[in-house]
Design a protein that fits this description.
Number of strands: 10
Strand order of the largest sheet: 1-2-3-10-5-8
Helix content: under 10%
Radius of gyration: 14 Å
Strand content: over 45%
Number of helices: 0
Order of helices and strands: EEEEEEEEEE
Largest sheet: 6 strands, antiparallel
Distance between the termini: 23 Å
Structural class: mainly beta
Length: about 110
């Protein structure tokens, strides 16, 4: 069993995301959790990420606060808010953006880690 306490999590800017997007690592292969990557990510207002594909990894997002747009091919597929969940199957292109003037925070789970 492993516990990661608040303040012990590493914070980083995910590759392919705007510089104002931050992520806090909870568990991933670098800290002993080989089968899953779990982090908390915050998109500052009017930030996002490039469209990407993870060929072998599913993503599940759970919104803690704010709103995000899920896009494919430059088109908005859905808007998600607090309490909503989003599953992105392995191999599916996706882009997540925060078009609002408020931060958006979510828990992201990637299986297996990308």
């Amino acid at each position: 069993m492993q516990i990661v306490r608040k303040g012990e999590r590493g914070t980083y800017a995910p590759p392919g995301h705007d510089a104002a997007v931050t992520a806090e690592k909870l568990f991933d292969p670098t800290n002993g959790c080989s089968k899953v990557d779990v982090h908390i990510t915050t998109f500052a207002p009017h930030t996002g990420m490039e469209e990407e594909i993870h060929p072998f990894s599913d993503h599940v997002l759970y919104m803690l606060e704010g709103e995000l747009e899920a896009r494919q091919g430059g088109k908005t597929v859905s808007r998600i808010g607090k309490g909503d969940s989003l599953h992105i199957p392995a191999g599916e292109s996706h882009q997540i953006v925060n078009p609002s003037s408020k931060p958006a925070t979510f828990v992201a789970v990637t299986v297996p880690p990308a």
